[in-house]
Design goal:
Protein name: DUF418 domain-containing protein
Organism: Spirosoma utsteinense
Largest sheet: none
Number of strands: 0
Shape: globular
Keywords: Membrane, Transmembrane, Transmembrane helix
Number of helices: 18
Distance between the termini: 28 Å
Mean pLDDT: 90
Helix content: over 70%
Number of domains: 1
Low-confidence stretches: 1-19
Radius of gyration: 24 Å
């Protein structure tokens, strides 16, 4: 693929030169819009239902809601977020390839300021809007780490992405190995108790036994705990905040540093490589996009369907999952499954875009992509106000299929709002605020205002 578009080629220079608001790469915006709207397909489940109630659909595999949750899992879960991360990686290169800013500050300084403000917005989304699956905080941190990678060749970036993906896969396997070790220790203790019912367990043996029993209990359906979860989420803001606090701490701290970091780094590096090859800027041949669409979707979906039974077994019977498996197939394959499918979906979208049909749709998706930052936080605001108790309080009150009616409504709102807003303004409201904070001065907002040279990362 490197021969298709080398870093020294005229096409590559055109793809990464600093762009004005009127010189955007439209396909990048379209793909960003698709990824942003696609993310809601998965996040709506966490906005509107308890995790336990969603898992109950897997434990009782029949009916339309089971097939719906299965199809969403196989086709989209993690894939749209992976594509979003890839596009953010591409945006990093767009920003850093500016020769010099008009603010008097060097581009690296501006980039660091931009990322730090993104971290602030992420904290607001997680701790203020109460969305514990926020990704802005993570993107802000990871983007700073990836600063030194901008000068690497696309092939080297791809190697780095694969290496980090393997580390992520390895960490997921290591987690499973620790679970299996706990199960084996539990088995040894129970075997000892069966052999001698009067045996007095040591403190270490008691800990081994309770550790496994606590793990299994935490994965079983508890109707009382599920109902209490719903009651808390339908309460006032302070109650919801306190209830979400442990989840938010876990996602912003321990989960991110153990697993999420490797996930995001691998996808952003892959996005940087693909951007340097001209993938996102629609510069590959139709034959190449066709090959990537078919190959990416077939390989990725084959992995997804192959690992589905393993994924469901971990929910239905965790003890059997640990005791009968030597390899957590679903988790080990996941980093690569999502990359293949994300590239496949992106290639399919670019092929459809290249056909020239449905110009109105591409214009609308491009508008959503231009305002991705605003629309991402808008999804948090709309969903929390609709489902949480300090809003309309529909949390836990809707069937799974009904959630996707809400998704369709939010999509429509964001498509129309983005188109209407960009008729008057050059930036989304939060894109404008973020850029103004980054540059340390008010940026032009109206289309009639004179604009300094700007380059989008998230917007």
């Amino acid at each position: 693929m490197e021969a298709m578009l080398s870093p020294a080629s005229d096409e590559y220079v055109a793809a990464v030169h600093p762009v004005n608001q009127t010189e955007r790469i439209e396909t990048l915006d379209v793909l960003r819009g698709v990824a942003l709207l696609g993310i809601l397909l998965m996040s709506i489940q966490a906005f509107g239902l308890t995790e336990a109630s969603v898992q109950q659909l897997v434990r009782n595999p029949h009916g339309g809601n089971y097939w719906l949750v299965t199809l969403v899992h196989v086709l989209f879960e993690n894939k749209m977020r992976a594509l979003f991360s890839m596009l953010f990686g591409a945006g990093i290169l767009l920003f850093l390839n500016k020769s010099r800013s008009s603010s008097g500050m060097e581009v690296p300084e501006l980039f660091i300021r931009r990322q730090l403000w993104l971290i602030v917005f992420g904290l607001i989304n997680a701790w203020g809007l109460l969305w514990h699956y926020d990704i802005l905080f993570h993107y802000g941190i990871v983007g700073i780490f990836l600063f030194p990678f901008m000068r690497l060749s696309p092939r080297t970036l791809l190697v780095c992405a694969v290496a980090v993906g393997l580390i992520y896969s390895g960490k997921l396997y290591w987690q499973f190995a620790e679970q299996k070790q706990k199960y084996e220790k539990f088995q040894q203790v129970t075997a000892l108790e069966k052999k001698n019912k009067k045996v007095k367990l040591t403190d270490e043996q008691k800990d081994d036994k309770s550790a496994w029993e606590g793990m299994v209990k935490g994965r079983q359906y508890d109707s009382k705990a599920d109902k209490a979860d719903v009651v808390a989420m339908r309460s006032d803001y302070a109650t919801v905040w306190s209830h979400q606090l442990p989840k938010t701490k876990r996602m912003e701290a321990s989960f991110f540093y153990q697993f999420g970091l490797w996930d995001i780094v691998s996808m952003m590096l892959l996005g940087m490589a693909l951007f340097k090859w001209g993938f996102f800027s629609n510069r590959l041949t139709t034959r190449h996009y066709t090959f990537l669409a078919i190959g990416g979707i077939l390989i990725g979906q084959a992995m997804a369907w192959f690992s589905l039974s393993n994924h469901e077994l971990a929910i239905v019977n965790f003890t059997r999952y640990v005791s009968t498996n030597s390899l957590p197939v679903a988790e080990v394959l996941m980093p690569f499954e999502r990359a293949f499918v994300a590239i496949g979906w992106a290639s399919l979208v670019l092929l459809a875009y290249r056909s020239g049909r449905g110009a109105w749709l591409w214009k609308a998706l491009s508008a959503v992509g231009q305002m991705a930052f605003t629309n991402y936080l808008m999804q948090s605001m709309l969903c929390t106000l609709f489902f949480y108790g300090y809003g309309l309080g529909y949390y836990g009150d809707m069937k799974l299929y009904q959630l996707y009616i809400v998704v369709a409504e939010i999509w429509l709102i964001q498509l129309v709002f983005s188109l209407m807003w960009l008729k008057t303004f050059r930036l989304g409201p939060l894109e404008w605020l973020w850029r103004s904070l980054t540059y340390g001065r008010r940026q032009p907002m109206l289309r009639t205002e004179t604009s300094p040279q700007v380059t989008p990362v998230f917007s």
